[in-house]
Design brief:
alpha/beta, 10-stranded mixed β-sheet, 6-stranded parallel β-sheet
Length: about 260
């Protein structure tokens, strides 16, 4: 690809050429290019696209920006959403240029950063944030206050990925390239990083995952003991307490799913 070769050459030489950089950002903004995408052997990170985003910051200057009646001082303009896609953006929801909102996305007063890709019919609820380069699938619900971490550097680092049909409850935090599998359900306040263990406790012996939530897992916050010289303390983990059934797929309420496992409050 000529564009890829141009971006790599600029990255190596340090001699900025706005043309290829702007072209890459425009393709990101229109959904024709992605930072990461599913392949036959799993997700593939397009490092050169992340390099284009980093270069874009270098060619931009902080300047006054207007979006309706709102005024900003920033390097990156606010995204102009294509009305033909049926996307709904509720004030003061903001998506930055270089992010993509697919057909039917609803963005409540939250935030979607550059490089992020949000799949069809996904809800980004109030005060939820989708960090730079995060990849959010179709029919996902990011409930109020969900924090999806962003990652730009190093370019080879995998972004957070939330696959199709997942449901993340209020105030969940997912960072450091964690992948949430298709159809998984995270209850409120689950906090995941690459080092936080996700433990399946549904069988006779615990099964531990790190950096991923298996597809259709139902996950709640948990703790487990760890001994230190000063004593034994509880460290955070996440517990897989069940598996989402087909009967759950027609329900929109997280409480409905958790009630099946006698966990709803």
């Amino acid at each position: 690809m000529v564009l890829r070769e141009s971006i790599e050459a600029i990255w190596e030489s340090g001699e900025l050429d706005a043309g290829p950089i702007e072209e890459a950002i425009e393709l990101l903004d229109r959904g024709r290019l992605r930072v990461a995408e599913p392949g036959p052997d799993g997700w593939v990170v397009n490092e050169w696209v992340k390099k284009a985003i980093l270069l874009y910051f270098r060619i931009r200057k902080v300047e006054p920006l207007d979006a309706g009646g709102l005024h900003y001082l920033d390097k990156i303009p606010v995204k102009q959403v294509d009305p033909s896609l049926g996307v709904r953006v509720v004030p003061p929801g903001v998506a930055r240029r270089g992010s993509f909102l697919s057909e039917g996305v609803i963005l409540m007063p939250g935030y979607v950063n550059i490089g992020a890709w949000v799949g069809p019919r996904t809800m980004v609820d109030t005060w939820a944030t989708v960090g730079s380069c995060a990849q959010i699938g179709a029919d996902v619900h990011l409930a109020g206050g969900v924090g999806i971490g962003g990652v730009l550097e190093p370019p080879q680092a995998a972004p957070v990925i939330v696959e199709d049909g997942a449901f993340l409850g209020s105030r969940c935090i997912v960072t450091e390239g964690v992948r949430v599998g298709e159809g998984a359900v995270l209850s409120a306040n689950v906090s995941l990083t690459a080092s936080v263990p996700v433990i399946d406790v549904t069988g006779p012996e615990p099964v531990e995952y790190r950096g991923e939530v298996p597809p259709r897992a139902v996950v709640v916050p948990g703790t487990r003991p760890r001994s230190f010289p000063a004593g034994t303390y509880q460290l955070a983990c996440a517990l897989i307490v069940g598996w989402r059934e087909e009967s759950h797929d027609l329900r929109l309420s997280l409480n409905d799913v958790l009630r099946e496992f006698e966990l709803a409050v």
